[in-house]
UniProtKB/TrEMBL annotation:
Signal sequence region: 1-24
InterPro entries named among the record's database cross-references: ABC_Transporter_SBP (IPR050902), ABC_transptr_periplasmic_BD (IPR002491)
Protein name: ABC-type Fe3+-hydroxamate transport system periplasmic component-like protein
Fe/B12 periplasmic-binding domain mapped to chain residues: 92-361
Membrane-traversing stretches: none
Organism, scientific name: Desulfatibacillum aliphaticivorans
SUPFAM superfamilies: Helical backbone' metal receptor (SSF53807)
UniProt keyword terms in alphabetical order: Signal
Amino acid sequence: MSALICIFTAALLLCTGCNSSSEASIQEKNAEKAAPTPASFLALGEFSVEYLDDGYVKVRDGAKREFLLVPRGKPPLEGFPKSRIVETPVRSVAAYGYFDISILKVLGVIDDVLVGVTAPQDEWVIPEVVQGMESGKIAYLGSYNSIDFEVLKKSSPEMVMTWDHSVIPILEDLGIPCLITSTPVAMCLNAKMKFVNFLAPFFGRETEASEYFGQVAGVLQEIAEKAAQTNEHPKVMWGDIYEKRVLVEPGNAWVGELVGLAMGDYVFDDVFGASCIEISMERFLTGGEDAEILFTYRTPMTGATSKEALAKTNPSMSAIQPLHAGKVFAPLPHYAQSGHKLDEILLEIAAIVHPDLYPDYERKYFTELPEKDA
């Protein structure tokens, strides 16, 4: 496990080191309104950003499609269909995902550009979204699987950010570029923290992205240093049993990597694939035999009010150790909309894995379930 910390810390330094000249060039571009020279390339998991000459940028989205970002007032370069050309900085955007919208907040553009979302007003806790919906500036487009494209068109977004590949042809017919912000494989920790660098060039906010990345990287360094002080490796699982499916976070997901960095033992480390990947009941129960900590997907609003209540959602849940001899943590309702606080979330998970290393920590994003409801 110590080797894992050394490797991961080295990887962080390597990522920062390899991109240091790129980030410096980006900051100079923001400050001096000049294009970075020479052109720089950033690989961000499945995503990529390539800075070309004269302010043009080429990006690859989660569907492996290339887009050309064109500074306003300049002609597009050849070789890109109209649906893959985006004028920058983007002035209006509709977005499906909570994390994408949280990153708009990180970049400082959420008030200026967000015009459409796929969750109703009463489900939002991000102040800028609540206020925008109250004023009518931000429209509710319908749920993600039943978008009202007339409302979307009326909102006039210059770009839509989504995980739903099926809407690409519809949006192309409407003349609206569609950016896929999810990938078939779960985001690793490095991709999660650097996703901000993928969205930054759409809005000319590379400086803000660099600051955010540095802040998150600093917290990871702190977690690694604290973790080196312990010889305890608590077994951790992240997932849940539903009526017809068993879903977990795979070992390649950011949460699995974080547990390892924090000197925990992630019981689904051998599982690879998408976030919320389906596994067999047997595999889930085997992982839970000696697990000490369970992170459930369910919130207190969706049934996770106590260990007893969670067990009632599916009788098989009661067989795993965290429900009778360990600890269970549920995300609070605002957790899903707190991507702009990724550094705090990472620290909180580390504090849950090793509470002895963080004796004065007060949780903000997860709640520990009591044995029974009051």
